[in-house]
Amino acid sequence: MPVGRAMRGAVETRSVSPVFVGRTRELGALHDALAGAAAGEPQALLIAGEAGVGKTRLVEEFATAARSRGAVVALGGCVEIGADGLPFAPLSTALRRLRRELPGELAAAAEGQEEELARLLPELGTEAAREARRDEHGMARLFELTARLLERVAAEHTVILALEDLHWADASTRHLLAYLLRTLRTGRLVVLATYRSDDIHRRHPLRPLLAELDRLRTVRRIELGRFTREEVGCQMAGILAREPDPDHVDEIFERSDGNAFFVEELAVAGPASCRTGLTDSLRDLLLVRVEGLPESAQQVARIVAEGGSTVEYRLLAAVARLAEDDLLAALRAAVNSSILTPAPDRDGYRFRHSLVREAVSDDLLPGERSRLNRQYAEALEADPTLVPADERVTRLASYWYQARDPAKALPAVLDASVEARRRHAHSEQLRLLERAMELWDSVPDTVRSTLRPADYTEVYPPCGCDPETTPLRYLDLMAEAAVAGRLSSERERALKITKRALRLLEEDPDPLRAAWFWVQRSRLTQSLARGDGWTELGTAQELVRGLPPSEVHAEVLATAAAWSMLHRPGPDAMAAAERAVEYARMVGAQDIELNARLTLGGLMVDAGDIDAGLAAMYEVKDRATALGVDPVVGRSHINLPSALEGVGRSEEAVALLRDGVRVTRALGLLDSEDWVWGNLAESLHSLGRWDEAAEAAGNALRVERGARPRAGALMRLAHLALDRGNLTEASRHLSAARASLGTHDPMPQYALPLTCVALGIAAGEGRLPDARAELLEALDAGFPAGTQRYGWPLLVAAAGAEADALGAPATDSGRPAVLDRLRAAAKTLATGAPVWEAYDAWLRAELRRAEGRPAPEEWSAAVAALEPLQRPYDLARGRLRLAEALLASGAEEDDRARATDLLRLCATVADHLGARPLARSATLLAQRARLTLHSVPRRQTAGPAGPADALGLTGRERDVLRLVAAGHTNRRIAEELFISPKTASVHVSNILAKLGVSGRGEAAAVAHRLGLFPAEAGTGPMAG
Predict the structure, then answer these.
(1) pLDDT (tens digit, 9 = 90+) per residue, 60-88?
(2) Is the separation of the CB atoms in 701 and 668 below 8 Å?
(3) Of 559, 491, 563, whose CA–CA distance to 528 is shortest?
(4) What is the dihedral of CA 661, 665, 669, 674, to 10 degrees?
(5) Is the pTM of this model over 0.70?
(6) Residue 829 backbone phi and psi in degrees, to 5
(7) Could you give the dihedral angle defined by the CA atoms of residues 363, 369, 371 and 372, in that order, rounded to the nearest 10 degrees?
(8) Residue 166: other Cβ atoms inside 10 A
(9) If we measure between CA atoms, which residue out of 884, 878, 846, 853 comes closest to residue 863?
C-alpha cells in the first residue's frame, strides 16, 4: 500500500463535507444522460464552473451512483507540468483504467490495431512498432481508431469516460475530444468533461473548441453556479459535524460568495480567523492552512507544487532529500490538513485542490522555482524509473526548461518533440520545436554539435550527408516545425516559420532546401485562401531546374502537376506529371511516383484518352492499397470516381465512393473523407438519387477540414435546390460556397459549376441580363483544356435560358450574339465520351429552340444520346423539349401520342425527384396541348382492375418490378425469385416495354407514382 494511504491519524481535521449538498438539477441531467447511454445512444456533456465551485465533487458523486448501477467509470485528468500539458494524458489515463476494469473487452476491441492505439496506451504495443508507420494522416487514423475502440467496448457495457480540467488540456487532447464528440454514433457511452469557466479568456486555446461543441446539438453544457446561503449552511454542517452558528454562516457566505472550496477553507479557519486577520486576497486565503504546517511540510508542499499535477513518492523523496521518517512526517501533516492527498492512480501525491497548488507555486521565489526544477531534472536523469515511461521524456524536457538551463533543455526538448510526433501529437510537437528554436542561440556550439537532424520532415533534403554524423542545423528545426504546423492545422504558425526559413536561405543559399520550403509555402498559401500557390511553386521549379534528380525535385514536379490538373489542365500539366513519374522512379520515391501516376491518369482522361487513363488510375489505387501508401489510397478514392463521373460512369463512381467512405474512415483519412462525400453527392445527383445526394453533401459538411471540400458540398446543395425550384435556398448555398472559396484561387472545377448555378438562379428569377453576365464572364475567361465536363452543362443551361426567354422584347436584341458565343465555345470542348456527345446534341437542339425553331429531329437525337446515360433528370428535360417540338411541328396524331408518352415519363420522373419546375413545365405543356398525363388504359373485362393489371403485367413481372423498385440488380432478383439472371433480364425488358420507359429508374418511379407496392413505400435500400 502506498505510504500516503495509510497515514490517517487522530489529529485529522475534516475539511470536506461528507454530505453532498445541492446540485439536484445538475445531477439529474447526468443521470438522464446515463439512462440515454444505457439505451444505446452516446451522450456528451460539458460541466463548466469557476475554480472551487464543486465540479470534481459532482463528477465523483455521479460516478459513485453510476457504478452502483453497473456502469464502468474511466476517469482521466489533464496533467499540468509547469506550463505544459502531457499529450493525450487524460485519454491515456482513462483508457488505462478502462483496461483494468474490462481487460478482455478492451483487448478484443483493439485487436489488430494495437500498435496504432499504443500511441495512446503504450501497454498495447512496442516502441519499435510505433516507429514503423509515419504519414501525415497518422493523427486522424489514431482518432478514428480511438472512436471505434470506445464504441466496441461500450457495445455491451455502459461506460463513462470522464475528463477533468479541460482548461489544461493539450491541443492534441482537445482535437481528439472534438473528433469523438462529432463522430461517436453508437454504444452505451457517456463522455463528460469539466473545465474552469473563469479561466477561459478570449485567447484561451479551449475557447474555439467550446464554440465548436456549442454548435453540436448532441453536446449538452451544465453550468455549475455558486451555493445559496442555505446550501452553504448545509456544507458547513457537514464539515463541522454540527449545526453552525447562523451568524457564522452569514459571514462565511458573504466572504466565500457561495464558492464551495472557499467555504471549506473559511470553515476550517474558524470564526476567529474570519473576523480578524484574514485578508481578502485569494492567494492569502488559500495559503492560510499551508502556512500553519510545520516548516518541513511547507517545504514538501512547495516541492510538490512545482513537480506537476501529481508527483510520485520516489521522485519526491529524491528531490526533497529528507530522511524517510522526516519526509513521511511532513507528508502526514500535509495530508491530515487536507493540503495534499494520495494520488488515486499511482504511488504519489497531489494537491487536494489545484487552486492551492497554484497559490503555493505562485508564492515561490524565481530562484527557488528554477532550483526545484533542476533538482527534479537531475533526479529523473539519475533514475529514469522514477516516473512512468510514457511521461519521462516530456517531464524531463519541462523540468530542464523551467530550470533555465538551455544547454540541458535543448536536447531534452528535442527528444520530447520526437516523442510527441511518434504519438501523432503534432500540436505539442510544434510547441516543443518552437521552444527549441527559442533556446537555440543560448546553447553552446559544443552542445549543438552533438545534436542530430530532426526526426521526420517528409522529403526535406539531407544534403547527401549521413544524418547520423551531420549536426542538426537551425534550418532543420524550422523544417520539422513547418511540417508539424501543417499536420496540426496550425497553418498560420507554419507559414510564419516557412517565411523565416526562406529569409535565412536568401543569406545562405541552398536550392534544394529552398525549393522544399517554397512547396510548403504554396500548400499553406492555398489552404489559408491567400492565393493559388502557383507563384510559390514556380519559384520551387526554378530552384530545382538543372539539378540532379532527387526526392525534392520529384516532389516539386508532382505538386506542380497536381496543381495544373486542377487549375490549368492540358499538355503542359501532362508533361509535368510524366517528368514527376520519371524522377520519382529514378530516386525510388514510391509514394511520390504513385501520386504523380494518379495525376497523370486523370489528365489522360481529361485529354480524351479515357480507357487508358482510367486503367492507370485503377492500377495506382490497387498498388497503393497493396503497399499501404494510405495518402494515395485516399486520393485515389477521390480522383478516380471523379474521373468516372466526368465521363458519365456515375454508377461505377458511386460504388467506388461508397467503398471510399469505408476506407477513409478505417485509415483515419479525414482530409480525404470530406472529398469522398462531396463527390458521392455529385454522382448521386446525376443518377437521380437526390435525397441520398443531399445526405452525402451534409456528411461532407459535417467532416469538412478545409474551404474547398466545404465549397464543393455547398455547391452540390445549391444545384439540388435549383433543380427542385427552391431559388432562395440555392442562392444561400451559392453565396456560402463562393465565400468559402474566396477570390484568390479560381479553379475551373468550382468556378464553372458555380457559374452554372448562378446562371440558373438568375434565369429562374427572370433576370436574363444577370444570367448573360455570368455566362459572358466565364466565356471571356475561356474553358481550359480538359474542362468539358463543366463546360457542356454551362453551355446547355445558358442556351436553355435564352430559349425560355424567347419573345421578351427587352432581351431579344442581344440573343443572336449570345448564341454565336455559345456555338464558338462549343467548338473548343471535347466530345470523346458518350456523355459529352449527348451534351453536344442537347446544345444543338437548345440553340435551335432559342432561335424559335422546333427541330424535333435534333431533339430526337439528343434524347437518344441521353437515354443510355442513367441520368433521369437530364433525360426527362430532353423528353419535355422533344414533346414540345413534336407538338409545335404540326401535331399529327402519332406525334401527339408520342408527345403524351414523353410527357408522362417526364412528369413521373419530376414527381419522383421533387423537381417542381420540370413538373410544372410538363403540366403546362400538356394543358396547352390538351393532353392528359395521368390516364391509365381501362381493362376491357368486368370487375375492378388494379394498376398492375391495367398495365398488363403478369404475376411474375409484378414480382420482378417490386424488386426493381427496391433497387435490386438482375442477379439479386434472380436470387430472390429462384430464377436465372438471364430470365430476370428478360422480365425486366418486358416490364420496361409495357411501362413505356427506357430504364430501371423510370420503371421504379412509375411503380412509386401508381402505388403498386404501398407496403414497401419509402423503405427501399440505398444502392451502392
Answers:
(1) 889 999 999 999 998 888 766 544 556 78
(2) no
(3) 491
(4) 40
(5) yes
(6) -100, 140
(7) 90
(8) 24
(9) 878
